[in-house]
């Protein structure tokens, strides 16, 4: 079978794609060779800016199937009946590395999931960890800069990383996860996913509950040792992406059990009074003993993209994308991401990125957005404005049916550091680990801390001590075995 006739981007047949148009066999090239110029111009523009975080990733399409009734908590139509299916797209990623970095680096993994519902797109943008390093978005640029490259040497710097973490007591919980075996998962299929933030659900009666989303892998948790992760970084840096693509290609469709924790405002208030933990703090978990997991459905990935750039690289997620029956929470990090994610896509992909097939909703939509670069449909003949319809819009509370959120307190910059309990949950996690896992954690931390400045090392060790004396002791012993005696 012969390939299709080669054309320019405008569909004009190309007579010769092997030789440039020149003045004689050896003469200079001619400006009128539009095919040559179009090829070079497009080549120069083939890269859109990579994501500042989550730059390298892999994605796939699939389905979400409801297995348990959630209608007592939400009126979102995608949960309207057992057996109901919704098409999805899921992008996995590493967080700190560049687009060409290794899949096996010690790093959290992104777990960004889009549901193409009949009421619009719902984007649940999380990680493979239930918590994060910081609790206030004003520190996010600073934190990410420490995970990138030193501005002088252009090298990754453990000094930068631990200087930040040792000054940020709220980071200890996530640091403990990162340097455990879970910091180097064996591909994307063998890890859990989390919405991480606290979100909300709203039912037909307008009643709100708060929710945490969990995705439990049916393939089983599987992690890489530090040595194996380093080996694969050199021999197969695309290990996770290859594993996902090939598994789906051979019909071994990965699946996750979708579960939720739910709580009313009153339940969370009682829990906070008892524990001292802010339920909307992204550095904290809701213990399963207090808020048990409830089954919701099954997520399956069953189709690879046809084109990586069009469908994975240009996929543009935002946690601001929620549908009626779903909502936000006072989580400060979530509030920051509601702005930052969409703004990043406006810069990276363009003002009309939502018109790209991977981003476009699969239900009818109408808005007044027009013009700009790559305005593919541009609304056709429909009007580009909405008239004022005072008092008759039917929208109350916060917009699409979510009830209003009562606010209280003085507007100001409130610093909880020094008063919040940022060590107990990290200590609880350490105490839950088996002896072998504790040893792996301490060895991994010692490897990373062995070369940092003394003041940074001592400050970080004091954080481990506050979480659990055995935690600090274990890291000191592992450091001593590496020739770094920390007192």
Automatic annotation (TrEMBL):
Residues 7-392 form the Catalase core domain. PROSITE patterns: CATALASE_1, CATALASE_2, CATALASE_3. Its EC number is 1.11.1.6. SUPFAM superfamilies: Heme-dependent catalase-like. Its cofactor is heme. It is an enzyme of class 1 (oxidoreductase). It catalyses: 2 H2O2 = O2 + 2 H2O. Keywords: Heme, Hydrogen peroxide, Iron, Metal-binding, Oxidoreductase, Peroxidase. Residues 1-21 are annotated as: Disordered. PANTHER family: CATALASE (PTHR11465). Decomposes hydrogen peroxide into water and oxygen; serves to protect cells from the toxic effects of hydrogen peroxide. Belongs to the catalase family. This is Catalase.
């Amino acid at each position: 079978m012969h390939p299709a006739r080669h054309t320019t981007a405008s569909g004009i047949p190309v007579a010769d794609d092997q030789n440039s148009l020149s003045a004689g066999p050896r003469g200079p090239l001619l400006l009128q060779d539009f095919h040559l110029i179009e090829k070079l111009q497009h080549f120069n523009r083939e890269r859109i800016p990579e994501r500042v975080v989550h730059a390298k990733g892999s994605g796939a399409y699939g389905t979400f199937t409801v297995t348990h009734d959630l209608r007592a908590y939400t009126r979102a139509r995608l949960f309207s009946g057992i057996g109901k299916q919704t098409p999805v797209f899921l992008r996995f990623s590493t967080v700190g590395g560049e687009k060409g970095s290794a899949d096996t680096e010690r790093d959290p993994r992104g777990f960004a999931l889009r549901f193409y519902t009949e009421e619009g797109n719902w984007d649940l943008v999380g990680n493979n960890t239930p918590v994060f390093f910081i609790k206030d978005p004003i520190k996010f640029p600073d934190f990410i800069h420490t995970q990138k490259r030193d501005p002088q040497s252009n090298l990754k710097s453990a000094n930068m990383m631990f200087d930040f973490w040792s000054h940020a007591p709220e980071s200890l919980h996530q640091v403990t996860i990162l340097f455990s075996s879970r910091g180097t998962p064996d591909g994307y299929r063998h890890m859990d996913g989390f919405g991480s933030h606290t979100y909300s659900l709203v039912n037909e009666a307008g009643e709100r509950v708060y929710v945490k989303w969990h995705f439990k892998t049916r393939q089983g948790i599987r992690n890489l040792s530090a040595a194996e992760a380093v080996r694969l970084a050199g021999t197969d840096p695309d290990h996770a992406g290859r594993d996902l693509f090939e598994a789906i290609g051979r019909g071994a469709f990965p699946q996750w059990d979708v579960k939720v924790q739910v709580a009313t405002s009153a339940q969370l208030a009682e829990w906070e009074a008892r524990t001292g933990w802010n339920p909307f703090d992204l550095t904290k978990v809701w213990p399963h003993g207090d808020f048990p997991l409830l089954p919701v459905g099954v997520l399956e990935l069953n189709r690879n993209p046809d084109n990586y750039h069009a469908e994975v690289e240009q996929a543009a997620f935002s946690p601001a994308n929620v549908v009626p029956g779903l909502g936000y929470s006072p989580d400060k990090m979530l509030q920051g991401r509601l702005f930052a994610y969409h703004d990043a896509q406006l810069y990276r992909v363009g003002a009309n990125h939502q018109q790209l097939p991977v981003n476009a909703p699969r239900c009818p939509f109408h808005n007044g957005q027009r013009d700009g670069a790559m305005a593919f449909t541009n609304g056709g003949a429909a009007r580009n404005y909405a008239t004022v319809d005072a008092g008759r819009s039917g929208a109350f509370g916060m917009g699409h049916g979510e009830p209003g959120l009562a606010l209280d307190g003085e507007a100001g910059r409130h610093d909880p550091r020094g008063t919040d309990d940022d060590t107990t949950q990290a200590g609880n996690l350490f105490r839950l680990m088996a002896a072998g896992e504790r040893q792996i954690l301490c060895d991994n931390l010692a490897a990373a801390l062995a070369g940092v400045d003394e003041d940074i090392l001592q400050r970080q060790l004091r954080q481990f001590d506050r979480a659990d004396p055995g935690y600090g002791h274990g890291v000191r012993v592992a450091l001593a075995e590496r020739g770094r005696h920390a007192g």
